[in-house]
Hints:
With 234 residues, this protein is an alpha/beta fold. It is built from ten helices and nine strands. It has helices spanning 7-11, 16-34, 42-49, 53-61, 75-86, 101-108, 145-152, 163-175, 202-216, 223-232, and strands at 39-40, 73-74, 92-97, 117-124, 133-134, 137-141, 156-159, 180-183, 196-199.
Amino acid sequence: MTRRSTLGARNRGIPEATVARLPVYLRALHTLAERGVVTVSSEELAAAAGVNSAKLRKDLSHLGSYGTRGVGYEVQYLVYQISRELGLTQDWSVAIVGLGNLGRALAGYGGFASRGFRMSALLDADPAIVGDRINGLTVEHIDKLEQVITDCGISIAVLAVPASAAQAVCDRVVASGVTSILNFAPVVLTVPDGVDVRKVDLSIELQILAFHEQRKAGGPGGVEQEYLEAVDGS
């Protein structure tokens, strides 16, 4: 299988920031298509995606899509263009390693298949979980990791393992030829050049939201004042 993913975008000079926004545009376009919208203006699509229209037009110009003056963009064709650029017109085989609560939730989600991602393998180290059936797949023991990756032609590995095990599992996944990893473990993984890792840390996202909530509520009276209040109350 040819690995396009964002590689084609890099080779053609599409900025990483643009690549990161393409899935947001695609999600907005799918929503519009479900509503029966045939064409959409840059302003309407930008509003749906939460960006300004000038940035959206510049991003889409990297794909060679400029829309039609007075008409806008054809929704279905733009869905195809973005899907092709992201590599979603192919069938990507995915393995989830770690079937705790988060891993089970991911394995049970049915929306991946419609986006070009096929759940092909589930692995865990817990004998109590191995053998379970989740969404039509049997959980294999992690001792079979290398064999499963080869047999299933895994393109992307999703790590939902404890932080203490993440690097070792990552090393095995990479050694087996997988070069795209989605990491949910709260740890920074070290990988060789040519391996792409996307990190999802829910605790960090919550902390960022807490920061904004604090600012909306008026914010603290400065670090020094907060420290003094804490000392006085101790």
